Amino acid sequence: LGPETLGIDYLLGHPIVSVQLDAAPGLRITASMVDCEPTKIRNGQRVEHEVRCREDIPVLVFRPALSMEI
């Protein structure tokens, strides 16, 4: 399976989210949500993307947005 990715709690599982992009209405990207407890994830929540490496392979993840600006 490979080494763990930073920010994902493997004991609880890693939540997967489908995010609709502001820049492309109708386009959704599915990826892991990190740095957020699964019970805190909400529909319509603002997120930011980040690229993390797993075995030197870049992996797209989302995390809660630091800013609420659109």
Distinctive features:
70 residues; mainly beta; four-stranded mixed sheet
β-strand number: 4
Give the strand content.
Answer: 35-45%
Q: Alpha-carbon distance between the termini? A: 37 Å
Rg is: 13 Å
**What composes the largest sheet?**
4 strands, mixed
Gross morphology = globular
The helix/strand class is mainly beta
Average pLDDT taken over every residue: 85
Number of helices: 0
Fraction of residues in H or I helices: under 10%
What is the topology, as strand order, of the major beta sheet?
Answer: 1-2-4-3
Low-confidence stretches: none
Order of helices and strands: EEEE
Structure at a glance:
The protein is mainly β. It contains no helices and four strands.
Element layout with pairings:
Layout lengths: L15 E5 L7 E6 L13 E8 L2 E8 L6
Parallel strand pairs: 2-4
Antiparallel strand pairs: 1-2, 3-4
Give an account of the 3D structure:
The chain is mainly β and 70 residues long. It has no helices and four strands. Strands 1-2-4-3 form a four-stranded mixed sheet, with no helix packed on it. Strand 3 and strand 4 form a beta hairpin. It is globular.
